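Minimal example, chain plus 2'-O-acetyl adenosine-5-diphosphoribose.
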Amino acid sequence: MLPIPPSGHLLVLTGAGVSAESGIATFRDGNGLWENHRVEDVASPEGWQRDPQLVWSFYSKRRAAAMAASPNPGHVALADVERRLGDRFLLITQNVDGLHRRAGSQRLIEMHGNLFLTRCSECSRPPFQDRGLFEDRLPECEECARNGRCALLRPHIVWFGEALFPGDMERVQDFARSAGGDRFVFLAVGTSGVVYPAAGLVHLAKACGAEAWLVNAEPADNGSAFDHFLRGRSAEILPELLGVA
Ligand code: OAD
């Protein structure tokens, strides 16, 4: 079980491996979502400019897959430990499927966005909830239309080459700094450690005094930065590790 005493803090980073247990394909395994598409075609501003219908079709399929999935014991264990630790817990996820929130996580940063939020590609209206599927038509912004302009809606996802949402990294930094005085554990789960800045969070946490744990099906690219590596399936390991089995 993770050694978190009553005044200790836990910062968790999750990746696609946590949702793999709910049947959502990961990015870099053999059956990865990118298999039939080049990343730059479906997850970059350039791909969007070239073919927005391909992008919407891709994210519509991912919406449908996420709607059909349910949180697994790994998601549930993280929500349970949050209830125990309160403000001494923070979860930052690279996953966009919304499963952490559905499992009950609240102190949650979705650093790469959320599949079920849409925003305008042109105007500054806030992102809004959207479960629409746009496999063969392109949704347009009604607010822009009211002002006589024509603009496409886009998924509220951080694409390659785009900045993270303002405030997200600052919130993680503030948490790590405030945690540093006490016992502080950083736990990464189900992530290949390839995509930055997420893959660099282990260094930030360690600089603030964290003990770093990795739970993953296979060694991660940034694996040497961790103090402990538990190899296996997140839905099996997390409930036991977090003491909620
Ligand atoms: P990856 O697909 O790169 O890595 C998933 C990791 O989870 C791999 O190392 C697997 O070994 C591991 N894994 C698979 N099944 C597992 C299981 N049941 N239990 C534990 N581990 C398991 O996914 P991410 O690291 O999340 O970005 O990818 C990071 C980012 O790359 C994504 O957020 C996405 C992608 O491009 C954007 O869309 C911006």
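The domain at 1-24+71-112+164-245 is CATH 3.40.50.1220 (Rossmann fold). The mean pLDDT is 94.
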